[in-house]
Amino acid sequence: MVNVRSYAFYLPFSIYHLPFMDDVKFNKIILFVNSLVPLALLAWDAYWQKLGANPIEYFLRTTGVLTLVFLFITLSVTPLRQRFGWNQLIKFRRMLGLYAFFYGFLHLITYSIFDKSLNLSAIISDIWQRPFIAVGMTSFFLMIPLAITSTNAMIKRLGGKNWQKLHRLVYLTAIGGVVHFYMIQKSDITYPFLFAALLLGLFWFRIHQWNNKAEKN
Questions:
Q1: What is the pTM of this model?
Q2: What pLDDT does residue 81 have?
């Protein structure tokens, strides 16, 4: 079985070259292909029936991790751009964010269709009895307006300031995603802890940035 989750954590390093290459179109192709590799690996393992004793659970866990990975890569664009002057990264943030939404959508679809067979009463009961599902769904639904308003036309329609305010929801999504991940883990909380530590670092950067702006004003 291919270790898709390991590849998920390799993804940030697989696109490290993006700030150093001028061909944006070529870079987007590389990013597009790299971002689909985990899904291709999952499909390969599914075809050969190598997803373990519980394929649905494996697919759920993997797409959940991929959602968080892409979400955190997206959130890291601004700090990396401002800290190291990698201004090229801003051109890839939209695609990264949409991939976070894409894998979150696959995560939800897998749960709703393959795990619960679109049984609405079973889903509602599950949400009521297992709070981590409610947290995860809330986090995903917060991503929907972000995905819808990711186009240039929507930015112009909303106005830059309003668009920025709306897209701060991504931090609530990240918090919910980390809490959801932590609540699922029964014993090993290494990965949830790593995501939480990274999230704290991103919050520290934002708070530091806001303080600097306040001092200048």
A1: 0.90
A2: 86
